[in-house]
Specification:
- This protein has one domain (about 25-109).
- It is about 20% helix and about 25% strand.
- It has 3 helices and 8 strands; from the N terminus they run E-E-E-E-H-H-E-E-E-E-H.
- It has helices at about 30-35, 45-50, 100-109, and strands spanning about 5-10, 15, 20, 25-30, 55-60, 65-70, 75, 80-85.
- The strands form 3 sheets. The chain has a 4-stranded antiparallel sheet with strand order 5-6-4-8. A two-stranded antiparallel sheet has the order 1-2. It has a two-stranded antiparallel sheet with strand order 3-7.
- A hairpin with a 5-residue loop joins strand 1 and strand 2 (about 15).
- It is globular and about 35 Å long.
- The termini are far apart.
Amino acid sequence: MKDNAPLHLQGGATAEPCNEWRQMMHLHYCMYTAWDAKVDEHPQEVMRRLGVTYQHATPQSISDSWWFWNCEGIPDPLPPYIKELKIKNPHEYIGLGLSKEDADAIARQ
């Protein structure tokens, strides 16, 4: 796909970067749902094209997903394959994709 081109979703809908932003949050990117929506780019590339910046990205191979921590520039609405990751304490996930150093840095934000 071309840079800045919209992401095409099922049913002819598209997801594009927009000027309406949500405040910082953690995001969960589901590769299964993205594949169903005909999105075959790497999750980090999709986030970049949507204008989402993040502090840290954690691949979760057991669930074919990615966790993006302390995201900013989040479009509203989100594509159906990206949801809010409702984790309050990243220290609970040390050893599950996060190191102590990563969790400390995420928690400082």
